[in-house]
Give the backbone structure.
Amino acid sequence: MVKIVTDSVTGLSADEARERDIAVASLFVNWNGVEYVESDLDVDDFYGKIADMVDNTPTSSQPSQHELEEVFEKIARDGDELLGVFLSSGLSGTYEGAIRAARSVAARNAGFNFRIVDACSVSYDETWPLLRAVAARDAGADLDTCVSECYEGIASSRFLFVPDSLAFLRAGGRIGAAAALIGGLVKIIPIITVTDGKVNPFVKVRTHGKAMKAMYELFRKDVEQYGIKNVVVHYIGDKTDAVAWAREKIEPLLGHAVAVKPVTPVVGVHVGPAIGIAYECASRIADKINKPLSAVVCSA
């Protein structure tokens, strides 16, 4: 049987993970000398303090190799196969840590078969590919078919977001200090995406309002060109504006209700207050990923 393991950055609740038979390894947020287990955080309560974090930005850390080995060891001893799907290796060391853990378990358990997939993104841009793999597993697919489905999900999904400012991205090292300063002086706001596993500015405009309009237009064009399967509107910080944007813009376009969910704190503390949208299209998005499947999967 294929057993699926992922990380807390997907944003799946404990109930959602349990219902889908997904094991979740939590990342951690470190702030003011306290280490918080991301999976245990009340996200909205945590984001209520985000205004206090801009000059004292929290850090994040990945699961220990020991923790991952414990999860993988049980899978190996039960005679099952492992499919691990983890957040972008370009943004975290979690993927590499999972590879080390899987190889260590394989050295102790002859015949242990595993695939570790670099989801090449975060939040629901990681979750949509994961859920494709889950659906394949539940339909009886073998391990490599589950991996192929996950890769199709990676190639067919996109995450766009508009930060309120560049302060958190600068503090977290995601953009250079000079770029952050220039952006602040001339009020340039980027629409940011994740391509090939790295954060990139998609479009730059002069005001937050124009950025939100441009993000909507990018989404609308993707829907027209590639079709749409799944959508979630994301937020970091207060959710009020994200809910309004979902109700006033995204739902009329699609003709149905759209979930509004927070980005998990491990990502949120590096971006700061923001609104975004993560979606899975019906076909591959041309510029989402240039890496072949072999470059995002580590096999036993």
